[in-house]
Amino acid sequence: MKIVARDIPPRAAWALEQAGIHPLLARLYAARGVCAPGELDDGLARLLPPAGLKGITDAARLLADAIAANQRIVIVADYDCDGATACAVGVRGLRLLGAQQVDYLVPDRVADGYGLSAAIARRVKQRGADVLVTVDNGIASVEGVAQAKALGLSVLVTDHHLPGPELPLADAIVNPNQPGCAFESKSMAGVGVMFYVLLALRSELRARGMFDAASQPKLDPLLPLVALGTVADVVKLDANNRRLVAQGLKRIRAGAMPAGIAALFHAAGRKAPQATTFDFGFALGPRINAAGRLADMTLGIECLLTDDPARAAQLAAQLDGINRERREIEGGMREQALALVERLLQRATEPPPGRPKAASAPSGGSEDTPVPSVGAIAPPPAVSVFDPDFHEGVVGIVASRIKDKLHRPTFVFAASSEAGRLKGSGRSIPGFHLRDALDLVAKRHPGVIVKFGGHAMAAGCTVAEDAFDTFERALAQVAQEWLDAATLTRRIETDGPLAPEHVRADIVDTLHREVWGQGFAPPTFSEEVQVLSQRLVGEGRNHLSLKLLHQGSPIDAIWFGHTEQLPERVLLAFRLDVNEWKGERRVQFLVEGAQL
User: Fold this and answer.
1) pTM reported for the whole predicted model
2) C-alpha distance from residue 267 to each of 103, 230, 466 (Å)
3) What Å distances lie between residue 305 and 250, 251, 264, 316, 488, CA to CA?
4) 335, 394, 347, 392: which is closest to 372 by C-alpha?
5) Residues of the chain whose pLDDT is less than 70?
6) Which terminus of the chain has a lower count of CB atoms within 10 Å, N or C?
7) Closest to 199 in 3D by CA, of 171, 176, 178, 223
């Protein structure tokens, strides 16, 4: 591991500080590319105009015509938090704008698979739909859209995923990543795309005389949902996305949010008046995602759609219970997957048959060679694991955990409901575009990958079970070609030393109120500190509690999930938090890593 400090452009930091921004925030913003105070304006008026999205005018006209004709609109959602929030935004927004018949359908992760398939299109038709709208999926659904069109449905695709070589022949496509779209924000989540479609639809209805600027329905109440889905989908928080998230957070903190979001805050033990992006990514998002992983995402969507607080509380409690189950399954799978990786590393270090081992067991010792720890031997440039007992709904989370531990692009596979096939989910590291890697594997080894899709940092694929070994070797080969030693070394970028005067609870509160996330990293500092004491805590004794000396002052710290002792002096990367105990609020460090 290498800890490196970000460059902080002095002129930008000075300009921000001169504009009245707190010196610490000015330094943090400048290090993240903010050059002028205007870039921090999170007002709705600063949002990019919808007209910049290719296809949005056609989409608005299609939906306006459907509303005028009282047609039945069915939304086909994805089964993650982005898909659930996009669906809720679509249903709520269309009803606000006058649609009388709006329904939704979400595929089952195991039974149906991802996206708009031909079978899903037929089910939508059976529901009496006239118009089919996809949210957070559809850009790769060539067959599904063709089936829907053959059944007489009008089709609007709203998505943000990267397109394949062929686009579906929908009546309209809104996706900032489709060819020919000049929209500046390429990182918008599916929920953001649907919100933009509603903005364009409202403008179209206004032009048709349905209402004027004074009487038009307000779409602001949808922003908490937009903020939640955007952060939970881990898309890059560019300036436009940060504005969407900031607007949603402001409304939640003021108590203006759907009943389901309020109930999820309560179920997670979080405080809505102090809502942060951390709450979205690590408290609310996982509880919604759990429904799509282990049960039925309808639970999550219904929680976000209901206006009845009692019903919302009941659904949030169900989601919380499912999430607890998900954590148990994930923990077992993670241990199992890491054991598979350890055996893989052990095989890689064993001499070929017939060649003696480099060293024998010492006299009197065990004849069994111990399995090396994952950290002791360098893992391959890319990791792929499969076990027949793995749960398909949790492979993505487990892949993410292994990727974080090993700092390698990682795919985890489970048996598919389709005989002879495996479904995998992958997570990547900076510098390795996962979807492009899958594309290259598919071209080099035709027939190994049945289908694939995704982004640079996350992707999914289906492979033939008897071709898993070929896939494993092929992905590792691509990683070997694309990644160098520097990229394969885990790096933690930090904001450098933290001045003692900034170690205050009120400053930590200020930092937490800002919008941080993917592409706009939360503040992380680094310094060499003295370790005064350390001990393992927690039920499993798997967290390291520390007492540190930071610039002459003692401070508490904790390193979650770490059990190895630290030397007396060590360079640490850490975030700031406030620990509340018996009414007293004290700053503590959350350790992210150590350079030994």
Assistant:
1) 0.89
2) 27, 21, 43
3) 20, 17, 13, 12, 44
4) 347
5) 347-377
6) C
7) 223
